[in-house]
Amino acid sequence: MSTTAKEQPEETSVTSTRSAPKVVHLTEAERSGRGKSAREQSPRASHSTLETDGRDPVTIVDADSASRVPELVPIRYGRMLVSAFTFYRGAASLMAHDLASTPRTGLNAQLCGDAHVSNFGGFASPSRDLVFDLNDFDETLPGPFEWDVKRLAASVEIAGRDRGFDDKTRRASVLASISSYREGMRSFAAMGNLGVWYSRLDVQQLVAGLAADKHKQQVKTIKKAAAKAQTKDSLKAFSKLTHEVDGEPRIISDPPLIVPVQELVGDMDRSALVDELMELFRGYRRSLQPDRRTLLEGYRFVDLARKVVGVGSVGTRCWIMLLLGRDNSDPLFLQIKETGPSALESVLGRSQYRNHGQRVVEGQRLMQAASDIFLGWIHVKAGIDGQPRDFYVRQLWDWKTSVDLDAIQPQGLEIYAGLCGSTLARAHARSGDRIAIASYLGKNDVFDRAVADFAVAYADQNERDYDALVQAARDGRIETKEGL
Fold this sequence. Notes:
The chain is an alpha+beta fold. The chain has two domains: 28-229 and 403-474, no CATH class; 232-395, no CATH class. It is built from 20 helices and 14 strands. The chain has helices at 9-12, 28-41, 57-61, 73-80, 84-89, 92-99, 145-162, 167-189, 193-198, 203-212, 216-229, 234-241, 261-265, 270-285, 290-296, 345-348, 356-367, 410-429, 434-441, 446-474; strands spanning 2-3, 108-111, 120-124, 130-134, 141-144, 201-202, 242-245, 248-251, 258-260, 300-307, 318-324, 331-338, 376-382, 389-395. It has a seven-stranded antiparallel β-sheet with strand order 1-13-14-12-11-10-9, with helices on both faces. A three-stranded antiparallel β-sheet has the order 3-4-6. The longest helix has 29 residues, at 446-474. It is globular. The chain starts with a strand and ends in a 10-residue tail after the last helix.
């Protein structure tokens, strides 16, 4: 596991000799006119259309399986087969393929690329407030703003079906996500640049707003989740994931979900292994701001393990690293997650970043109001399997919490969908032309209703695609391992 001998200066150094592109500043009227003109290219009502004829969903979903850890791929499919909703969560590449044929506004922003309802949630800000935001950026890439909106809206419809909600309830929740996006974008369009940049939603604000609207049950649920989230940190991970071996803490082996690195490399001498890991670690440190690098250098390496995470990410190489500060009561767990090309790159073109870890980090910093202080990236020249790979790094647990969609009630889904929509609008307003996008969306609900119709059509297609994966498992076309 050695790093490249030379970091890529054109991506990581402020002293790059490449000339910066010229920035063109349009007037407010010109930006608004851009949005109105985009309606001619892509009428708002046209966003209801969906064409998916002739594609094989299993082939598309399975396309990157060869690059994943072979013994983990069946776990990925086992998780995707739990329900049509978990299938949707793991099939970002399939939706990217389908969105390629839909109308495009030409109004771009930094996209999450996988903006479904389970990829929003709470986490700690650097100022130690619990904030609500997008929290998954593996597929991030600049692209048409409406693609994120459509993925969010479809996820609300699919989540509502998963809960057994009726058509009217689902429609109200889907419309809440889209109208909150539109109204949020219009609000951000009226704000100054710094106002948009500093805008964020912390949980205290959220609770106060819900209390003012007399949503007592939602307030109770959020307060309970917030209290639990604030106990979910490196200390909690340390107590849950480690035990003592020869006087030193070690990550507990729980294969195939957690496998310490020593078990993966076999007879390799531990001191030699640690030397290799430290070179990797030094490469990661160089991607951090100097003050955060100094903080990190106060921790010493203790252990590393491969860990299975998520649904769509299962099979990619994800590691957890245990570090200790002043003593055993001062642990830090980092997650080191492999990332390749965004699912959107096959239809939108390659990222400007050669290192996909940097692609994720830069996209996350651009979209999130507050990001993890240890967010960084690394290129590994030759990992355990001898292959070069890109990774990004963040804390494993830092007050992370998410809504329980398995238990959410109809009113809760509608409120939550609206919250996700306004949060997505703020994320897009930071990088896209918020005035042009707001002008395109307009005051009425033409766009809302069109995307809501798209969400229904896509949920129907998602069910057919899920059934195709179920049949592929029955036929032995794919191997699955359930319950993990």
